[in-house]
Design brief:
354 residues; mainly beta; 5-stranded antiparallel beta sheet; 4-stranded antiparallel beta sheet; 4% helix; 52% strand
Length: 354
Amino acid sequence: MSLITRCKENPLIRPADILPSAEGYQVLGSFNPAATEFEGEIILLLRVAENCIREEGYVSVPYYHIDGPESHPAILRLRENDPEMELKDTRGVLYRGVDYLSTMSHLRLARSRDGIHFKVDDKPFIYPTRESEAFGVEDARITKIKDRYWINYTGVSKDGFCTMLAVTDDFVHVEKKGIIFPPMNKDVALFNEPCGGYYYCLHRPNNQGFGKSSIWIGRSPDLLYWGDHKCLLRPDDSVWEREKIGGGAPPYKTEEGWLTIYHSKGENQRYTLNTLLLDLEHPDKIIAKGSTPLLEPEEIYETDGFFGNVVFTNGMVVREEEGEQVAWIYYGASDDTACLFKANISDLIAHARG
């Protein structure tokens, strides 16, 4: 019997299920969902990637006119022969010395009673309103701490990518707290309760020059200011982890340790998922790590898409089913769609222990 069970309804959410956020935009991807439970529903916070509908003879790119909380999406529309425009491969254009990307992401809520059939909100929940988010907001994680829902996400700008923090009590209103990790840092996953008087998180600095991008751990007295950083886990140079690794969904507390699912990038830019078990009282200590991937791209929706051979998780919900704790692990496939697989918590721990 397989350790994991993919949902038969996969993909659960496709780009065609999402309304564009502005006239002239089109949705390219709805993927990498954060996940939590709220008032009897499973809530996903999707990364929605958009570009502009193509017009013959023109180059059009999306951008946000940022003016505080009243920011709004817009389109830079240029003639193909405009002498002030410089095409930068497929990623965007340089116009009058200013960079614009060909795609822009925001974060959109989806809600479900059964965790499989989702209704996606018509409008963005979190979108660029700050200079540090000018090129979009991406890849959220949701962590419930006491009675509040803390959302960390990646802000992208001309300065690179950084980690932002926000909080909501009702998934209607959201308060942005600002940058908690400056460029270049992402893949932050918050622990949902303190250990030894400190909050902990996993994060992923972008190594340049020496080493490969690895999973780090830091701690904070208040979720805003982080220190005591140390490298927790480096890529093991297997075919699955040859390029880099990074944190996934927020760690889940079990009797045997903090369980988390992390992602890795290996040969041929192929992404896989694996298990990691950390000490309950000292989460900077690794108890066990899976020796082979938990999930690899195998289904057509995982191997073919906007960027094929990618599975990436940043959302997990644990539910009781027939006396077992079952992890509902939501993941992005091929930077394109949102999907789901399930696994018993006991099996995930056994996988980590190898």
